Amino acid sequence: MSATPKKNRAGRRILATAAGLATVGALVAALPAGADDGVRTAAHTGRTVDVQLLSFNDLHGNLEPPAGSSGQVTHRHEDGTTTKIDAGGVEYLATHLRTAREGNPYSVTAAAGDMIGGSPMLSGLFHDEPTVEALNKLKLDVSSVGNHEFDEGARELARMQNGGCHPTGGCYEEGKTFPGAAFPYLAANVTDEKTGKPILDPYFVWEKDGVKVGFIGVTLEGTPNIVTAEGVKGLKFGDEVETINKYTKVLERKGVKSIVALIHEGGAPASASYNYDCDSPGAGDGISGPIVDIAKKLNPQVDALVTGHTHQAYVCTIPDPSGKPRMVTSASSYGKLYTDTTLTYDRRSKDIVRTAVESANHVVSRDVPKAADMTSLIERWNTLAAPIANKPQGYISADINGRGSTAYEKPLGDLIADAQLAGLAPADKGGAQIALMNPGGIRADLVYKASGSEGDGVVTYGEAFTVQPFTNMMNVVDLTGAQLITGLQQQVSGSNEASPKILQVSKGFTYTLDMTKTGAARVVTGSVKLNGEPIDPAKTYRVAMNEFLAGGGDGFPALAQGTNKLVGASDLDVFNAYLSANSSASAPIAPPAADRITVVK
């Protein structure tokens, strides 16, 4: 797949030379190979120099190519038709980035968080050491933290940065100690509650030949709402705008006037196609969501925003407080895309020529040679994981989509909820009558086609781990019918109204969502039933869910009101036990019908 050409989205390029003369970049492109040495010298010493910013986000430890729909991007053709392209895999990402850097002496690579956490087994089994090692080999220069960097708490994040063996897992390879990240993790808005100081560096200044670009890194202020309480214990998460504006002034006082914000918060583009031009005539705003308000309030001195969290692809301009367009980018997730942005740096003003900023997303296609060092890395860690990863757990008759499903009720969500109900329904296991699963905890699809030697339809431990990598402990609690209904209403109201988080529910539990209404009214009164009987607001029900939901995570405070808690096995263990007990090679599990939630649109 050929790369998408860059688009100048911030206005017409202002040339350092007289009007009508070719840019240095265009002149170089016109020269034969080996004939540009003199031109490049001029580029190094002229008034302006193009700084290449390569960026990506939300890798989530996906070193191997993501399977199924999780490993595809959508390409929009000029006639409006679309094509799905297989993408991702760090072996290919490395090749694409290294190729992109060729001929660009001023090149910096940055990321916008969630490099680790929620990772497939190859990385997650080893507490994401393989991913950090891969990022070091990719020559990542800097990354902001994301919410998933806190999955295992601040101490483990510090180990990711500074190195050392895992406190309980130890060193995974004899004679080798984990070196930590060779790049700085930035956490400007994450402070220690006791000291008030950032737990990691708030900013980083990249410098070459006198060219300086400052990076400020933040995660979303709402991180405590989507991470377990233990993961954010003792930490305070500040406002993104206030924090970035504060450190913009700090950098300015240090003489750094070219600034990029790495923000683990994002938006939703008007199109799912990675190459959609959201600044085209008639496109409207092109993008919506939290990043829009953030971008409109950030200090105009910030020249570009690299964002993430929503796993979307966009290259848009959003006006800064002075009304000037400013580039805002996101490169989907799982290493399927990377963004190539040109920042034209003015040596005299030490600032970016904003009207000359160009950017485009590029597909990490799988039609390029694999990077040999990444292949070696993957093989090494796969060898260590193989005794566990390749163990069969169960059988499926077709793809069962989870992450790749765009429906509110996902077939894999139903299967997971059913597994949780079956595992926790026995009286001595909690006596669960209903199971609820958060959609964000479903990290992949179960794919029928074999990815290794196990055979089509076989679900291995590694594949099950990739679907549920957090190993959250299961809880069974008492909830009144009223609390349960309130929990359902919180899917589509409050902090979840703009972007609903629809709980996946176990068999026998049904209700109707009327999305033509607003807020809590979307849950149709009287439609909530268990085995055909309306839920009684005054009655108590035993409800199974993972510890994240039971703690009120994802904007469900009603679920945190549960009492009489029993802690069971991990969600992964429950899932694997269900697969083993309910499937065989001759009787595989079929995709659930996904008929428990009726949606009115």
Task: Please characterize this protein's 3D structure.
The chain is an alpha/beta fold. Helices cover 23% and strands 25% of the residues. The chain contains 14 helices and 30 strands. Strands 1, 4, 5, 6, 17, 18 and 19 form a seven-stranded mixed beta sheet that branches. A six-stranded mixed beta sheet has the order 8-9-11-14-16-15, with helices on one face. Helix 5 (129-137) packs antiparallel against helix 9 and helix 10 (411-424) packs across helix 14. The longest helix is centred in the middle third of the chain and has 18 residues, at 372-389. The chain starts with 23 loop residues before the first helix and ends with a strand. Residues 1-5 and 11-43 have low confidence and may be disordered.
Low-confidence stretches: 1-5, 11-43
First-residue to last-residue Cα separation = 37 Å
Described by the principal axes of the CA atoms, the overall outline is globular
Question: How much strand content do the residues show?
Answer: 15-25%
| Largest sheet features | 7 strands, mixed
Mean pLDDT equals 91
Radius of gyration: 25 Å
The number of strands is 30
The proportion of residues forming helix, as a percent range, comes to: 10-25%
Sum this structure up briefly.
The chain has 601 residues and is an alpha/beta fold. Helix content is 23%, strand content 25%. The strands form eight sheets. Strands 1, 4, 5, 6, 17, 18 and 19 form a seven-stranded mixed β-sheet that branches.
Q: Keywords, please?
A:
about 600 residues; alpha/beta; seven-stranded mixed β-sheet; six-stranded mixed β-sheet; 14 helices; globular; disordered N terminus
